[in-house]
Design brief:
With 216 residues, this protein is an alpha/beta fold. The protein has three domains: 4-69, 2-Layer Sandwich (Histidine-containing Protein, Chain: A); 73-144, Histidine-containing Protein, Chain: A; 150-215, Histidine-containing Protein, Chain: A (2-Layer Sandwich). The protein contains six helices and eleven strands. It has helices at 4-16, 44-55, 79-92, 119-130, 150-163, 190-201, and strands spanning 26-31, 34-41, 62-65, 68-69, 101-106, 109-116, 137-139, 143-144, 172-177, 180-187, 208-215. Strands 1, 2, 3 and 4 form a four-stranded mixed sheet that branches. Strands 5, 6, 7 and 8 form a four-stranded mixed sheet that branches. Helix 6 links the parallel strand 10 and strand 11. The termini are close together.
């Protein structure tokens, strides 16, 4: 098992070599395989990138992300300006159906609401907002409309797990209630945990995924 000190060193190297990220203001601590990120970055996109970088480090069991966004003075914008730009970029985003997502901005924090048919549409809406200047955070409670039975979902997810080369599903238990999937059991890596969750979300009729998997 890799020591916490070695994991911390690996994380710091990954952060340093990530081209989309200025990691000079980020602090890293690791305890029992759980990484905690603190400090500050200059944009919300960098905050997201930092967590993604750490998640791919082998041996990390979980990530606690406590990074703050400190916007440079020249990229600060009024909330009404951010809201208008957010509405425009959503209208231009191919995978977001017109008039399905609504935007609210409060002190630079963007909240997205509405109803869509697929998870990728919900994700596309958030991705479109992340890189806007002046944004310090995004909340995404967009709902996914249910349109299948529990039996349909169970069968589809079993096939999805079987097809996925990056996933050893023997240790994963799946329970289905309507469009809600609960994953429990053990996986070997944090990446495998994320792969299982992504596979579950890949089912068209899934409205919620509860991830109770443990990395061990």
């Amino acid at each position: 098992m890799t020591s916490d000190a070695a994991l911390r060193s690996d994380i710091e190297e990954e952060l340093e070599f990530e081209p989309s990220l200025d990691a000079t203001g980020i602090g890293v601590a690791v305890k029992d395989g759980v990484a905690t990120l603190t400090g500050h970055v200059a944009s919300y996109a960098q905050k997201v990138a930092a967590e993604q970088v750490v998640s791919r480090v082998k041996g990390i069991r979980a990530v606690a992300e406590e990074i703050k966004v400190r916007l440079p003075l020249h990229v600060k914008h009024d909330d009404d300006e951010i809201a208008q730009r957010a509405a425009n970029v959503l209208a231009w985003t191919l995978h977001v159906p017109a008039d399905t997502v609504h935007v609210k901005v409060e002190q630079g924090w963007v909240t997205l609401t509405g109803d869509v048919d697929w998870r990728y549409q919900k994700q596309s809406a958030e991705l479109a907002i992340r890189r806007l200047g002046g944004v310090i955070g995004v909340s995404n409670p967009i709902k996914i409309r249910p349109h299948a039975t529990s039996r349909d979902v169970q069968g589809h997810i079993s096939e999805a797990f079987r097809r996925n080369a990056d996933l050893e599903s023997a240790g994963i238990t799946v329970s289905v209630e309507g469009g809600r999937i609960t994953l429990s059991g053990r996986v070997k890596t944090l990446q495998e945990r994320r792969t299982a969750e992504d596979a579950a979300w890949g089912i068209s009729s899934v409205t919620e995924v509860i991830d109770n998997l443990v990395v061990a």
